[in-house]
Amino acid sequence: MSCHHAFLRSAHFCSLLRSTTTSFAKNASFINAANWHLRLNCSSQQKRFIFNRIINAFSKERYSEKGTASAASEASCSSSNTAPKPSAASRLRPQAASIDTRRIQNIIAVASGKGGVGKSTVACNLALAMAHKHGMRVGVLDADVYGPSMHKMFNLEEDSAQVDPETNKLEPLTNYGIKCMSMGILTKSEEAAIWRGPMVMGAIRQMLTQVDWGDLDLLIIDMPPGTGDAQLTLTQDVQLTGAVIVSTPQDIALIDVVRGINMFRQVNVPIVGIVENMSYFQCEDCKRLGKKRYIFGKSGAKNKAQEMGIPFLGEIPIEEDLPLSGDQGKPVVVLNKDSSASKCFFSLSDHVHAFLSGDEGTEYEPSQKSERTKAPKIVFEE
Q1: Strand residues in the chain grouped as ranges (E)
Q2: How many CB atoms lie within 10 A of CB 7?
Q3: According to the model, what pLDDT value does residue 35 have?
Q4: Mean pLDDT, to the nearest integer, of 286-311?
Q5: Rounded mean pLDDT of the chain?
Q6: Quick check: 123 and 140 in contact, CB under 8 A?
Q7: What is the DSSP string of 175-191?
Q8: What share of the chain is helix, strand, coil (3-state, %, to 5)?
Q9: Overall pTM surpassing 0.90 (yes/no)
């Protein structure tokens, strides 16, 4: 056994580890705990050992807090004294009901089921279109813990998050009139989030419940791809108003889109509709001639929307400005609002606005915003 390994197993280090992880747990800081354990100069096996100790500390803290709350409740029933104030740990603890939905009127998830379809680009430009065209107060939560990109698209500085000393909450960064929170704001770009499910879910809950979003008409959640732990955390812990599904035209993307739609249906989250990204390409000559080149196939998402009885929200073309604007931190809706892509995003915002207002004469009715079930049932597809 090496000297370094022996030190990690020593009583002194175990005591230090116990006190450190307990401190992280009491402050409900999954993010800081995960980053701390990743920076340790030790082997992967030793890091897994430390990681398990961190998870145990969080589990014990949760159990202890529940027991303390129960004891306090019994004491208040048997005594006329005023109940004690909750501890700092309990005030910080992310809970499903702790997000103040009275200050956030609507929450829309932008999801895909598959990565690489331009979901973050759609979420970013939709947020700006909702704010600039419809005058809404909008915030964006980048829930993709493993691959955050929203801070880059909004030209926000990485590793720059600040905590309000009065509220003890994170302050979202603002640009172009949009409030934004992302793992890219909390960490440096070269830091990989090598986390298991409980850590990811804890980080997402923190970005939801421990961020001072203020008064918002709309919070857009840029969902991670897939239908795993992170997606279930968001659909179960947050009262989503609806979901916008992003896809590309080809069948290989639509297969996963169907799974994503079924997930939202199982928890009774209304589907706003499907928007098809990268629908077609137009060079300058094609624009003059009114021709479109359907590189990835034609009308795949539109046909799937009709098949599943879901509104089709439009086609977004491939344009040179679109990827460049994201890389430069100047979204196309801001950079060139008269471009074909920008017009498509403004049209998409009209659909979302109609859904939120339940306007008569549209494909949306107020009854679509139904109460969701507590949890989805597990379905095995043949």
Answers
A1: 107-111, 138-142, 162-164, 169-171, 173-175, 178-181, 218-222, 242-247, 271-281, 312-318
A2: 12
A3: 57
A4: 87
A5: 75
A6: yes
A7: ETTEEEE-HHHHS-TT-
A8: 50, 15, 40
A9: no
